[in-house]
What we know:
Keywords: Glycoprotein, Protease inhibitor, Serine protease inhibitor, Signal. InterPro entries: Serpin_CS, Serpin_dom, Serpin_fam, Serpin_sf, Serpin_sf_1, Serpin_sf_2. This is Serpin domain-containing protein. Belongs to the serpin family. The protein has helices at 42-69, 79-91, 95-104, 114-128, 153-163, 175-189, 285-291, 294-303, 325-330, 344-347, and strands at 6-17, 75-77, 136-145, 166-169, 207-216, 229-234, 240-257, 262-268, 273-280, 305-314, 316-323, 356-366, 388-390, 395-401, 406-413. 28% of the residues lie in helices and 30% in strands. Strands 2, 6, 7, 8, 9, 10, 13, 14 and 15 form a 9-stranded mixed beta sheet that branches. Helix 1 crosses helix 4 (114-128) and helix 2 (79-91) packs antiparallel against helix 3.
Amino acid sequence: xxxxxxxxxxxxxxxxxxxxxxxxxxxxxxxxxxxxxxxxxxxxxxxxxxxxxxxxxxxxxxxxxxxxxxxxxxxxxxxxxxxxxxxxxxxxxxxxxxxxxxxxxxxxxxxxxxxxxxxxxxxxxxxxxxxxxxxxxxxxxxxxxxxxxxxxxxxxxxxxxxxxxxxxxxxxxxxxxxxxxxxxxxxxxxxxxxxxxxxxxxxxxxxxxxxxxxxxxxxxxxxxxxxxxxxxxxxxxxxxxxxxxxxxxxxxxxxxxxxxxxxxxxxxxxxxxxxxxxxxxxxxxxxxxxxxxxxxxxxxxxxxxxxxxxxxxxxxxxxxxxxxxxxxxxxxxxxxxxxxxxxxxxxxxxxxxxxxxxxxxxxxxxxxxxxxxxxxxxxxxxxxxxxxxxxxxxxxxxxxxxxxxxxxxxxxxxxxxxxx
Length: 420
């Protein structure tokens, strides 16, 4: 009988605000003239960027699994948070268990060794958390251990060095105290966005591993609150809801994908994050969901062009909570959740398994933002009204880091009035 081992993947508050005027179009998400605040660490950048295609493959494969689990519902999660937590777990995994984890994260172990993968994640965390960025993105990894469980010094040392892991001793025999310790820590680290994360803990728990991201980004130009008005949002053929709809006219990065029948608008945050807002034509969401891959994003990036638009975008807050064990098992990460698990690199004995893997995420979108200096310039408009794009039916929202091309968050907003 394996000892229970809870993994809790947490994503705290994404605060997003809407935007009008954009900087020049970036090919592949990068502006060649834009300073790369820590790209001068060439080795670090190379190790990190080698992960990007694999992490993107994992992100969109996981997206497809989530859709199967929760069809026709709001979805929001952080692929980079999930990848990071399980890459960290792979440090303590051995044999088939380790292979399944890394291959389940979309790595080809004949092309990239485990050591190289771990070094890449270490550099990714450093680059995403860099203080020079105007985007607030804090990645935190923590482990809560029972006093009886003595982790190997090598595992703790490696996890601290690579993943900035924080370790805490926890009395799981007293579930109420353990819950309070963990919940207080999570609430503090997520700036109050996630509260009461764990409850009804099993006293048999010996370890809880947490990986979470706190993200806060401001658009380069905010919507004006006085332009927000209540309008209809068409959830499906039978359901219409009223939402506060923000509005702004300006020049936006725009593309219409004829193959997938969807409109793409790209908005940049101050700093290195960028968002793709994707509005499928009526009846085309399922086609988009089933075919979305990293190459699709690349094609959109390559074909975006500036267009004067009248943009309507809903103000909303949603959160997602997922028990992801089943989804990851379908992606090949199987043994770690069974008595076949080999996590002997954590304690020296093969008597641990992961009993539960949870991911939590939240997204807030409203009018607030920081005006860019360029926003004071007069916008010259033609006298004719620009075409209107209104996000008034289910859409996707994807958030990337431009410096690393990492997929930070993937969201599907089906009903913006439902918060969880």
